[in-house]
Amino acid sequence: MSTAHRGIVILDYGSQFTQLIARRIRSNEVYSQILPFSASEEDVLASRPKGIILSGGPSSVFGKSAPGLPDWFESIDIPVLGICYGLHLLGRYLGAKVEPSNVAEYGHTNVTPCGQSTLLAGTPEKFRVWMSHGDKVLEPSPGMEVLATSDDCPIAAFAHEAKGMFAVQFHPEVHHTEHGENILQNFVFNICGCERDWSAGNIVEEKVAELRKQIGNRRVICAVSGGVDSAVTAAIVDRAVGDQLMCVFVDNGVLREGEADSVRKVLNDQLTAPLVFVDARDRFLERLKGVTDPEEKRKRIGKLFIEIFEEVSALKGPFEFLAQGTLYPDRIESVSTFGPSVTIKTHHNVGGLPETFDFELVEPLSMLFKDEVREIGSALGLPDVQLGRHPFPGPGLAVRVVGEVVEERLAILRQADKIFIDGLKSWGLYDEVWQAGAILLPVRSVGVMGDARTYDFTIVLRAVTSTDGMTADWAKLDNAFLQETSNRIINSVSGVNRVVYDISSKPPSTIEWE
Ligand code: XMP
């Protein structure tokens, strides 16, 4: 945890927007960290924050098991901003009249500031905000100043300057709220006095120093897949303790066309550490024989990966540390907001390492979001083509060959996928989409080629736009591009006579078909 950058701690009360608050603050070059609302005073103050934000949350302060303010709250002397549920908590704490409401206010509304205030400085007479709440603060308590009202809320924002407490009923972190960024900046800079001293790029040296201290002269093993997260993890550990690091890359037989070679080459050029390459194509295909259930495919692939990893470390070890590309969202998702303890999903990236693995974890990216990891990768000199790579699932093409995974079908899929991806690149569309790939359906249909009847497989093209993969929209690709891709696939990939484009969004569909 960084104490060099004194930023903002966000106490998470379970809002779906908590991560967004952190991102908005970090995008202003101020460090921000999310902790569960039940965090201890020691944990919260460890990074010497200059302010605290209480997030929104799904609870009502009148609920039986409603999460409250921490018991150490009284003793802190840094500014606090409550957002939505956080406003209700502060309102109650300050003795204001808070009322439950059976009808939730959800969506856009207008707020009207009541004169000048530091928190709302720079906002106009009226602006649109995004609300999502049931309870309301109806009347202020002594010392509390009403900063804004809305159509539905007599108190849409308040301040208790003497106690350094501020609150907004709406969500300044969502982009539907006008001037939301301005309001957060007012809190962070004008009220808390934070400085712009944090950026993903300039923390590389800091991380390297931290890793050297943590690892000492012991050895580290790192599984690399060619993806951005593991490549950046390996690069940063390599820079810290290159001669004590060993990277392992497993060809599991369900990679894309030419991928094993290109990843090997890129990693070899990049790392000073040795790269162990394991060709396990036959072993994976053997394990997948006869399996059609998607979950079973994933489980078998994950299990074999672990076996191979264990074999390598038994042969080349001992290794005291395992480096993983765990990102901040992986950690946050695994933090139980309402649970008594914070459980971290330590095995996220390598498909579920068994508990018996006696490694200490090295997770240099665990405080970063994906776009920040790309920034770090860029600062470390990783090529743009590697940093801009689309996400690719761990189980690879095994979850894109619907039904049984056999080499003949993989070969068909690889060719179609290559045509699609190469086409996206040459049409300048690759960077426009979050992720793209082809899927092979085990469905045959009738076609006609020349004068002959064909009865062949169907290829699905899937391309989506997204910011984090949690939700996604199908990409509105140029029809001319789709037409060209379809023609090229049908004309050159033997075994395919039909190409369809997937126009489903997530939710309710998912990005991968299995
Ligand atoms: P879905 O299909 O759930 O995918 O919409 C969301 C994102 O996650 C990727 N994905 C995976 N990544 N191991 C991974 O490393 C997996 O088992 C896995 N399954 C899905 C998917 O490609 C998309 O980016």
Salient structural properties:
Rossmann fold; GMP Synthetase, Chain A, domain 3; 14 helices; binds xanthosine-5'-monophosphate
Can you tell me about this structure?
The chain has 514 residues and is of the alpha/beta class. It folds into three domains: 8-191, 3-Layer(aba) Sandwich (Rossmann fold); 200-387, 3-Layer(aba) Sandwich (Rossmann fold), CATH 3.40.50; 400-501, GMP Synthetase, Chain A, domain 3 (2-Layer Sandwich), CATH 3.30.300. Helix content is 31%, strand content 22%. The chain is built from 14 helices and 20 strands. It has a nine-stranded mixed β-sheet, sandwiched between helices. A hairpin with a 6-residue loop joins strand 9 (145-150) and strand 10 (157-160). Helix 5 crosses helix 6 (228-241) and helix 6 crosses helix 11. The longest helix is centred in the middle third of the chain and has 23 residues, at 294-316. The chain is globular and about 85 Å long. The model is unreliable at 334-352 (pLDDT under 50). Bound molecules: xanthosine-5'-monophosphate (XMP).
